[in-house]
From TrEMBL:
TM spans (from-to): none
Organism: Xylanibacter caecicola
Similarity-based family: Belongs to the short-chain fatty acyl-CoA assimilation regulator (ScfR) family.
Occurrences of domain HTH cro/C1-type (ranges): 9-66
SMART domains: HTH_XRE
Classification via SUPFAM superfamilies: lambda repressor-like DNA-binding domains
Name recorded for this polypeptide: ImmA/IrrE family metallo-endopeptidase
Amino acid sequence: MRKFNHSRIKIARKSGRMSMDDLVARMGDKAISKNSISRIERGLLCPSARTLEAIACACNVPQSYFYDSDVSIGKLDFRFAKTMPVKEAERIEALVTSDIQKYFSVEKTVNPEGTEYNPLKRMSIGTYDDVENVAVNLRKKMYIGNQPIFSVYELLMNCGVRIIEVDIKNDDFLGVSTFVCDYIPVVVINSRVNTTTERKRFTALHELAHLILNIKPLSETAGDAEENKYSDLSYKVSMKRPTTERICNYFAAAMLLPQPCIYARLGHRRTGLSLSELISIRCMYGISIAATVHRCHDLAIIDDTEYDNLYDNMIKKNTMETGWGEFPIKEKADRMQLLEERIRKELL
């Protein structure tokens, strides 16, 4: 018999943007006190069948949701565009946790044994050179060399990474990564913000970096002596210290657009780049024009002046890159939908 999980009451409540008072109100004639709700959420009180039914109805979830499904979710490593208010962060965490649990509940129905695969053991990363090397090695392990990635979602899922798309009404929530049951890598992408295929691909690889890289970058307050240890790089990386988020962004760009490929297309040094060149790269490699310009700057293909020129006079005027070509493959996280269809066809 599955065990009742009191923490899911709070998750379901916050997923519905409800306070305890709101939940009590929605329970109607089966309502219990706010204090009782609090005690249930803290595991101090076990709800009756009648109460649990009322809570499930109020939260719009099945009663089975409140019982363990042997899915242990690790720490959620969120990617927010800016600092998030605590209550909003809790709401988003509740929604994401709920969607991950639903996904694995469906997957376990189809495949009770599960799978265990990690394409790359965690490695210590401190510099951009390290990231470049990891991207090269990972591409070799995935048997893609320097070729464009046909589908990032499919590539990662074939390596055992679960890709889950959510639709959460918050433009500052980009994505999150975690491990389920301590070994299954999971990447969650907010499709409401990552609206283009290029953004989905980049975000998925950014989140992958959080999962497989043991990042030990220089701190933002590192002194000159510490920074000078990295002054002999083979290329000049934007004059910015390699912090965690910068390294994850760098990894995503290096995976999408390998160094030899960008050098072959654009050369090692340029005084300027044309829009047609950038569109061609977007259509071939599935990386946004903005990310390509960043990569060109990171590799010192263009200098600060041309970087600022491209951003101020082109990219900032068309942030969605409308009319600038597009990658022909549409990334779609439809595995859960396909699993549910399989259940209907084979198991019911």
